UniProtKB/TrEMBL annotation:
The keyword Hydrolase applies. It comes from the Bacteria. This is T/G mismatch-specific endonuclease. One of its GO terms (molecular function) is endonuclease activity. Keywords: DNA damage, DNA repair, Endonuclease, Hydrolase, Nuclease. The lineage of its organism: Bacteria, Bacillati, Actinomycetota, Actinomycetes, Micromonosporales. It comes from Micromonospora yangpuensis. GO terms for biological process: mismatch repair.
Amino acid sequence: MQSNRSHDTKPELALRRALHARGLRYRVCAKPLPDLRMKADLVFRPARVAVEVRGCFWHGCKLHCRKPSANSDYWTAKIDRNIARDLKNEMALRQAGWLLIAVWEHEEPSAAAAEIDKLVRDRRSP
């Protein structure tokens, strides 16, 4: 399990390249809120937008996550805990006035970047 990357994954790097090409600048692997234990993959502080690139297996994608055949009780519980943690973090960010955008690893990076670009620019302008 140590070889699984927590950041700088291929989907995350592709999204970062697409956002950078659109002229957006961001913090990488940063805490949106100091008291929250979560680090978002991308943080746009002035706009109060956090972006999380989620793996289909680890975060229970409804389209691609399938029940593991080996040690299924452990992995099912683990994925359920991850989903619950994601919801808890999203609620904490929302209460603090932040927007959390979840981008799934199977999404097209350029389409996700276009959506993020629009939301960040809308939240920046008064």
